[in-house]
């Protein structure tokens, strides 16, 4: 009985240490005014630019989305700041093929500028994933973006309407250097307790259960 209490206490200590040591990460680019927008609807776009925030080091739960919207002054149009769009997490498969592994519908407005939203449950981002977005038919993208001077900077894009979760798609390829004002906060997914405890005790895999049987 005493041995069981010892194991329980050690497990609790490991969990507390892991919780305190887990560092949050971010993926994407700063949500700030950049001066341009895509001026598209019914398109999915990917951000394959060099990322300012790229500190997701292990599978992590997305906890929040942050994005910046602006009027389409570059295109000589004025649009409503109230807009619904899907923010997305895409996972590389091979070449220009990506799988949609997470998405969330958000609404911007009533003003242009910085927006944030708590993430829905279960959206996971891995190292190497990329962010994207989709604007439905009848609206025009107001997500702020820019691109390197002297380039056309057309993005990776897909014109297939609403994309279901878990599906893979081959994107149309340009140079993919558009930088979008979109990023996520994320926290590492905790390891199962018995793996944490086993690692601390120098045991492999399910060795903790063998320890309890002694």
Can you walk through the features of this model?
The protein has 214 residues and is of the alpha+beta class. The protein has one domain. The chain contains three helices and 14 strands. It has helices at residues 2-21, 193-200, 207-213; strands at 25-28, 43-46, 53-54, 60-69, 83-94, 97-108, 113-118, 124-125, 130-135, 145-146, 156-158, 168-170, 179-180, 182-188. Helix 1 crosses helix 2 (193-200). The longest helix is centred in the N-terminal third of the chain and has 20 residues, at 2-21. The chain is globular.
Q: TL;DR?
A:
Helix content is 16%, strand content 35%.
> Would you tell me the structural class of the helices and strands?
alpha+beta
Radius of gyration over C-alpha positions, nearest whole angstrom = 21 Å
Number of domains: 1
- Helix proportion: 10-25%
**Coarse shape:** globular
The main β sheet shows up as: 6 strands, antiparallel
What are the low-pLDDT stretches, counting only 5+ consecutive residues below 50?
4-21, 194-201, 205-214
The ordered H/E elements are HEEEEEEEEEEEEEEHH
